[in-house]
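**Polypeptide and fold**
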Amino acid sequence: MSEPFRLVHTDPRFYLIDKAPGVNFHTEGGEPGLLPLLRAGLGDEALWPVHRLDKVTSGLILIARSANVANALAERFAAHRIDKFYLALSTGKPKKKQGLIRGDMDKGRGGAWKLLHSTENPAITQFFSTSAEPGVRAFLLRPRTGRTHQLRVALKSVGAPILGDALYGGEPADRTYLHAYALAFELDGEAFQFVCPPSSGGQYGSTTLAERLAGEWAAPWSLAWPVL
């Protein structure tokens, strides 16, 4: 993907876009952030962001088209009534191939976070994984909380830092292989389900992963996820 974003869906109440990796949400170092890029690219000044992705992360972002819709969607995010699903790749061998990753999070060094053994107010992530190709494992992740760097920290904690994620010890690559893959939510009594396979990053081109995304992982909200 050479453009900073791709329009996935237009609704009178919201836009759904696929953000490219490396695009910051906020204007930084003279480079425009995602919101001014969206206003220019969509020709619409009335935009309200309701959630964010890390700069290194690609994939689905909801953008409200009115303050009322932004409030309604923000309330759903806060109440964990919007299901989010991510894809990640790692060259590490995880301690377990599926299950739960649970623990409190605390600030570490150099802008990184760390997962603790305590569970007073834990970050919780459900996941499945499969072999994408020799030496590369694909993860389907479902965060049940919304902490900073939660998924990046979670995978590092099970011995599988995300490919390209230098901050958390991932093997060097052309990008950080974390992608916001799917969203499922209700708005005004209407149910929405969106899936957006990754479109940038050579390692995502694995035939095995493509088959899994077209098959078992095509509707991630319907999977029998590990019990919380």
